[in-house]
Amino acid sequence: MEKTWIRFLLPDDEYKRRNMLVYFAEAAILQLIAIIVLLVTSRFKPSLIDSEIALLCLLFGTIAYIWIRYILSGMEFAEIMTEKAYRRERKVIVIKSTSFLLIMCVSMLSFYAFGTMAVPLIEGIIVTFIAALLLFLTNYVSLKRSYQKNRELID
Amino acid sequence: MKNKVKFTRMEQKMTQEQLARQVKVTRQTIGLIEKGEYNPTLQLCVAIAKALGKTLDELFWEVD
């Protein structure tokens, strides 16, 4: 195991760990470039981008980069080798996403019934639906990529 | 990197899953090593060699 303080973020498997370190490093370099670009633009056009929005973009951009690289790498479902295991895992993903959607909708409805919701109910439900869809899509793509990769490695 | 991991493992009638469990990595990692698509660390090479009862030379040394 590499001697680094981010060890707690890294998986136990050596291949996954090395790739994750590469993704973190790539994201850090991209972030550095983005900060330099922002510094230069703020010098010449200070009102061009709001600083809070710029920081939020940097934050979500970095997380999204690492997340997308991880999903597309096909490393997540490292043990899914057979058609049967693939179908079973796909079912688990559907159940997980549907449960998330149902739990969030029920809790939102209860918050709404007790009058503690600051936003309109429909907006909350739309956001929940998008989140559930995103959860399903990312898991599904990751599973498909992993299965495709693993199929070529089977003995 | 070319290696004889797959050949030796099959010779010993061991599955990828069994080897992966013994050396504490995923089956995917073993598959990638066998295909030569991932170069393992020396630590993992030693663990694989021990699990298969071979030396590093026998598994990983390329002879022209």
Explain the overall architecture:
The complex is a heterodimer of chains A (155) and B (64). By secondary structure, chain A is mainly α. Helix content of chain A is 75%, strand content 0%. Chain A contains 4 helices and no strands. Chain A has helices at residues 14-44, 51-73, 83-113, 121-151. In chain A, helix 1 packs antiparallel against helix 2 (51-73), helix 2 (51-73) runs parallel beside helix 4 and helix 3 (83-113) runs antiparallel to helix 4 (121-151). The longest helix of chain A has 31 residues, at 14-44. The mean pLDDT of chain A is 91. Chain B is mainly alpha-helical and 64 residues long. Chain B has a single domain (5-60), classed as lambda repressor-like DNA-binding domains (434 Repressor (Amino-terminal Domain), Orthogonal Bundle), CATH 1.10.260.40. Helices cover 61% and strands 0% of the residues of chain B. Chain B is built from 5 helices and no strands. The longest helix of chain B has 11 residues, at 42-52. The radius of gyration of chain B is 10 Å and the shape is globular. The mean pLDDT of chain B is 93. The interface between A and B is medium-sized, with 16 and 19 residues. Chain B: One of its GO terms (molecular function) is DNA binding. Chain B: This is Transcriptional regulator. Chain B: Keywords: DNA-binding. Chain B: InterPro entries: Cro/C1-type_HTH, Lambda_DNA-bd_dom_sf.
